[in-house]
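in:
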């Protein structure tokens, strides 16, 4: 039996907002793959919980009226990987979340829970940053949207306002970010499954019509700092350039200017810097290849 003070179940977004206003200290329960583990370990003993798992309106992937890819916050990792919209326009996100945990965790774990945890090692985080995702929050004052780079405040903390009844309702990927854009994600860990990333790197590019020039480049890391982060120095270096082995090498080395990994029991700072360089070059080369360029 779980040691919880109370469990409230919301059946609509409006009901979830009302419950959050009434119980601002309550923990939101989505898929539960993280929260229930913490509860079982006793770290959340005596807390109140608001389950939003029954809100089917928060599931699924669609293209909205502004041609954004809209991913409901309760959409499972397995659903994202298999979804035809993701496979067509942002396949790298499906590949990234397919590296989360085990099949059982991917079936129950949600993209909203993964981002709301605020951890830099989340497998979705670097790709969503590289694709300039927008976080949609719904509260008593209506809908609030903010860039994902502003959503992550510090390690384990994101910009959600419980006092306003806010819950995360969707993640949007703008058309400008996914149109004619191709990417690659590499996760480094000690094992191939059931492993938290030691480092994650996601790169995407858009090539010129003749596939000879990188018109747009984005790169983001997880576990290269306290929150997921982009590398503007590297992005500027690659933009407008012809793909080449020399470019990949220079691009890879340039990431050191922007990242700030730490020493931890999983890895030293120096090793994270080393693999960050290796990952960057490989990700860029593969992204160019997927975009139709000569890697």
């Amino acid at each position: 039996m779980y040691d919880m003070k109370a469990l409230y179940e919301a059946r609509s977004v409006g009901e979830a907002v009302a419950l959050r206003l009434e119980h601002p200290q309550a923990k939101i329960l989505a898929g539960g793959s993280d929260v229930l583990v913490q509860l079982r370990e006793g770290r959340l003993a005596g807390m109140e919980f608001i389950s939003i798992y029954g809100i089917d309106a928060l599931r699924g992937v669609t293209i909205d009226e502004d041609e954004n890819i809209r991913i409901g916050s309760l959409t499972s990792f397995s659903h994202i990987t298999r979804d035809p919209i993701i496979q067509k326009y942002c396949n790298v996100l499906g590949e990234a979340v397919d590296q989360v945990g085990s099949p059982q965790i991917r079936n129950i774990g949600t993209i909203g829970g993964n981002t709301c945890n605020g951890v830099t090692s989340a497998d979705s985080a670097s790709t969503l940053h590289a694709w300039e995702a927008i976080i949609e929050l719904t509260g008593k004052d209506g809908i609030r949207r903010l860039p994902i780079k502003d959503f992550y405040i510090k390690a384990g903390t994101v910009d959600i306002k419980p006092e306003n009844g806010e819950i995360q309702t969707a993640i949007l990927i703008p058309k400008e970010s996914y149109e004619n854009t191709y990417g690659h994600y590499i996760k480094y860990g000690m094992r191939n499954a059931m492993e938290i990333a030691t480092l994650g790197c996601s790169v995407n590019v858009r090539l010129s019509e003749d596939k000879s020039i990188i018109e747009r480049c984005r790169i983001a890391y997880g576990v290269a700092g306290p929150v997921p982060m982009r590398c503007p120095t590297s992005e500027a270096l690659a933009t407008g350039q012809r793909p080449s082995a020399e470019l990949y090498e220079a691009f890879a080395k340039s990431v050191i200017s922007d990242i700030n990994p730490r020493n931890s029991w999983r890895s030293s700072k120096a090793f994270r810097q080393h693999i960050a360089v290796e990952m960057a070059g490989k990700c860029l080369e593969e992204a160019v290849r997927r975009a139709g360029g000569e890697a």
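note: The chain has a mean pLDDT of 95.
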